[in-house]
Amino acid sequence: MENLVEVVDWSRWQFALTAMYHWLFVPLTLGISVIIGIMETIYYRTRSQRWLAITKFWMTLFGINFALGVATGIILEFEFGTNWSNYSWFVGDIFGAPLAIEGLLAFFMESTFIAVMFFGWKKVSPRFHLAATWLTAIGASISALWILIANAWMQYPVGMEFDPAQMRNVMDDFWAVAFSPVAMHKFFHAVMSGWVLSGVFVTGISAWFMLRGRNRAMAVSSIKIASAVGAIGMLGTLWSGDGSAVDVARVQPMKLAAMEGLYDGSAGQAISAFGILNPDKKPGDDQPDFLFNISIPKGLSFLATHDFDGYVPGINDLIEGRATGNDGKETATESYADRIAAGQRAQEALRQYDEARKAGDTAAMTDAAARIKADFRYFGYGYFDSPQQAVPPVAVTYYAFHIMVLAGGFLCLMLALTLWGAFRRPALLEKRWYIWLAIASIPIVWICSEAGWVTAEVGRQPWIIEGLMPVQAAVSDISAGSVQTTFWMFAVVFTAFLAAEMCIMARQLRKGAETDFEIEK
Amino acid sequence: MELEYLQDYWWLLIAVLGALLVFLLFVQGGQTMLFQRFAETERTMIIGSLGKKWELTFTTLVVFGGAFFASFPLFYSTSFGGAYWLWMLILFSFVLQAVSYEFRRKPGNLFGTRTYDCFLLINGCVGCILLGVAVGMMFFGAEFTVSMGNILDHGSPVISRWAPTHGLEAIACWKNLLLGVTVLMLARTLASLYMLNDIADDAFCAKLRRQTAVNGIVFVALFLAFLAVLLTQRGLTQTGPATFEWTDYKYLHNLLALWPATIAFAAGVLAVLWGIGGTMLRKSWRGGIWWAGAGTILVIIALFCYAGFNSTAYYPSLLDPQSSLSIRNSSSTKFTLTVMSWVSVIVPFVAAYIIVAWRKMDSVKVTATDSGH
Q: What's the pLDDT at A517?
């Protein structure tokens, strides 16, 4: 196969492009569907035309956003086949199930009831319409659940065993896959952060109305609901984020080390609040990790182990075979050199198994199968020549994580302020500094959201399945030129549609404001 | 449950999903009519009628892909990674569709209504024809090889390899194209019938009846040609766990051997003909879509049965017959298929709420003054 590295790189870029565009739209769908559901419930109970107008206004923005989420989503599912075909076979027995369940349980629910939601105002009863709105919101969250179960499984592969006869992994415990703690934390973190994003979006747009001096009633009513949903989302995000950090420390310690730019860890490890990484730093050398760093003593140990004196390994420690034990103390584990050797032994045993199978030598097959089983957990390391190949891009992971944390901290304060203003001090919402703060929060919440996914996905490189399959063993047999062409096709189309969406939204803001203005009169 | 029973069950479910997808392609068929000589109000009615349903087609395509992935992952791996350009063009056309309904009439959409209508036309034509080509490969074969041992080759670790044209050669195959164009004409026929049922405008309905007649006759002619090609086509029979042999008139043999499928096939053909013929002959009849739709579903299910059952390779390899895929050598394990079978218990509930929502949404017909979109 020509240019394997180039094919892998372009396939990664294409998947990253699609995923990042997809994630521009999905969190808004997850959260704003709930906000709209609450608004329509108020309309249903009060039959107030003002609440009907408010509901329809936000529903229009939701529809514009939803279309692009759907468009980018279909590409993601099929890219597992088109660009990562080896992966599709190697773990298709496990990974395909959540995708199929998502389609059956969630997509049909979403697509059926979203049609009722948008086109059914004059065709179905208010009760049926309200049910359709809530079912759309529930469908979106169920969809997120199964996608995140699939994603979590790639980062923490459980509930399966390797079948050497078929040269693939097969599922042996569905519940372990469906309810792994990593999946649950990921699900709540993604959905709750969607609530935060939507709360900030609705608040920011409403603040824009306040700035224009129009539609005050609609804006204040929207801010009340949005800030409540956003604040609940923020609490959920903080809780699940803490759980995710502990998960990462336990099952993906290399990712945590990259998130912190940590090469040499210790007990009572400080956390980097923010810093500038030394760009020349390489694993194993003596250069300083940072050019500049502000750290909080013992912070990382507490984050990762819930113990101020817990041990957190750095990149060099993990390569050399030091890890965190179950008691939170330093413990010895296999070095990366040992893992590479184990992975190569497992692969060699698999070759021998295959030859024995073709020769009909069952004794040799049994022997080879036992050796595969002994070393299989490091199977993927067998594709590497050096331990450094198993280290993720540290700079991207570090900066993405810290941007997420800093932006998240800002949003936490902003939502607390909004909640207080909306329910206790309405005059605050009229202040120009607050209005500009709320408007400025809109791009910040999207940057925060995208940075979270960059941290999660870049930080787990080079693995497509943690420890078992690196990306270079997962690709399809296609030319780099083909992937490059489709990459640019999608880049151009998604960008054009994003521009169109933003223009349409801008127009809808003016139109929606007029509607509300008439009602207020 | 035995593995073979589960494999058969899942192939049947794939057949049902595939059949529903083909039926729902009436949305794409309707989109190809947007540039015909209709008045602007008529075009608006077309959009209003199809706009309520496009997501259902889209979702069925996604679920069809997901179900194939879960139940027959080797097909997913081989076909999608191999026929890269074919699938990418299909997906690209569906991306264009997904935004067009929502954006086309919105102020500030940057590209203008006609551009989005062009996107819908592209999706209508490309989606139907290329999905037909993709299914055509299940009968007429594809240029790939499968070797599991490749996964240990660090320089080139891909187990499924394809001809360098990566799916373009499948588009160039006249047999596949014949099926593709047949699907397009079927979609246009079903679209005429669906809109006839959903739109309350006498003048436009008269035009839709003419559309049904023209498209229906062309479709029937193409379908007969496809049937003739299929029944004289050789196919691969699985003779052992990893061995396949060419069999002349394989699909004719299957048609005779799989008699329940053949009864469904015959009933389906009659229902489609009745739906088209009845609409042409009875000027006030609007129920043709239900006959033609049900008939389409039966025929497609039967065709999937002919493709996969009776020890047939449903994805014949033209480069190396022993690499061909059958429902026995490409499926998930018994454990996964069992889990998925339990999940499939909810299918009737899903179908029920779709039917309820469909009936409620279509209870108010689309008119020139209220397109609902």
A: 46
Residues in chain A, total: 521
Domain boundary assignment for chain B: 3-149+157-339
Q: Which of A400, A69, A32 is nearest to A233 (CA)?
A: A32
**CA torsion angle A302 A307 A308 A312 (round to 10):** -70
- Other beta carbons within 10 Å of B146: 23
> Which two structure tokens, joined as six digits, stand for B327?
């429902």
- Where residue B331 falls (left for φ over 0; alpha for ψ -120 to 50; beta otherwise) is beta
**Gap from B42 CA to chain A (nearest CA, Å):** 18
- Three-class SS of residue A514? helix
Chain B residues whose beta carbon lies within 8 Å of the beta carbon of residue A504: 103, 106-109
For residue A2, the model assigns a pLDDT of 66
d(CA A508, CA A506): 5
Give yes or no for residue B373 having a pLDDT over 70.
no
Whether A323 maps to a domain, the answer reads no
Classify each residue of A101-128 as buried b or exposed e, where b means 16 or more C-beta atoms within 10 Å of its C-beta. Answer: bbbbbbbbbbbbbbbbbbbbeebbeeeb
Across the interface, do A119 and B361 touch by the CB < 8 Å criterion?
A: yes
The pLDDT score that the predictor gives to residue B360 is 85
- Provide the pLDDT for residue A514: 55
Give the model confidence (pLDDT) of A54-75 as tens digits.
Answer: 999 999 889 888 888 888 988 8
* Section B47-72 average pLDDT: 90
The residue-averaged pLDDT of B67-83 equals 92
Peptide bond preceding A462 in cis form (omega within 30 of 0): yes
- Residue A466 located in a structural domain: yes
What pLDDT score does A269 carry? 94
Nearest to A347 by CA among A372, A364, A370, A327: A372
* Residue A181 in this model has a pLDDT that exceeds 80: yes
Q: Which residues contact A394 (CB under 8 A, 6 or more apart)?
A: A258, A261, A277, A281, A315
Contact B333 A476 (CB under 8 A): no
**A163 and chain B in contact, CB less than 8 A:** yes
Range of the domain at A463: 4-157+176-256+388-520
Rg of chain B, C-alpha, whole Å: 21
* Nearest CB neighbour to A102, from listed B66, B74, B340: B66
Give how many domains chain A has, as a whole number.
1
Which residues of chain A make contact with B76, given a CB cutoff of 8 A? Answer: 80-81, 85, 88, 92, 96
In this predicted structure, what is the pLDDT of residue A303?
Answer: 92
- How far, CA to CA in Å, does A299 sit from each of A78, A255, A313, A324, A338? 41, 17, 14, 16, 31
- What spatial distance separates the first Cα and last Cα of chain B, rounded to whole Å? 48
What pLDDT digit, counting tens, does each position of A443-500 carry?
A: 999 999 999 999 999 999 999 999 999 999 999 989 999 999 999 999 999 999 999 9
Burial of A169 (0-12, 13-18, 19+ CB in 10 A): buried
- Of the candidate ranges A239-243, A514-518, B179-183, B313-317, the one whose mean pLDDT is the lowest: A514-518
- Report which secondary-structure segment, H or E, holds A323: strand A322-324
How far is it, in rounded angstroms, from Cα B121 to Cα B295? 26
Query: Which amino acid, residue B257?
Result: A
Domain assignment present for A295: no
Please indicate, yes or no, if residue A131 is contained in any of the structural domains: yes
The counts of H helices and E strands in chain A are: 17, 10
Please tell me if residue B119 touches chain A, with a CB cutoff of 8 Å: no
The yes-or-no verdict on residue A325 having pLDDT over 90 is no
pLDDT at B372: 58
Which residues of chain B are within 8 Å of residue A109 when distances are taken between CB atoms?
350, 353
Copy the structure tokens of residue B276. 């088209």
- In A59-190 the beta strands, taken as DSSP E runs, fall at 160-163, 168-171
Question: Which chain A residues touch B149 with a CB distance below 8 Å?
Answer: 167, 351, 354
**Mean pLDDT of the region A263-290:** 92
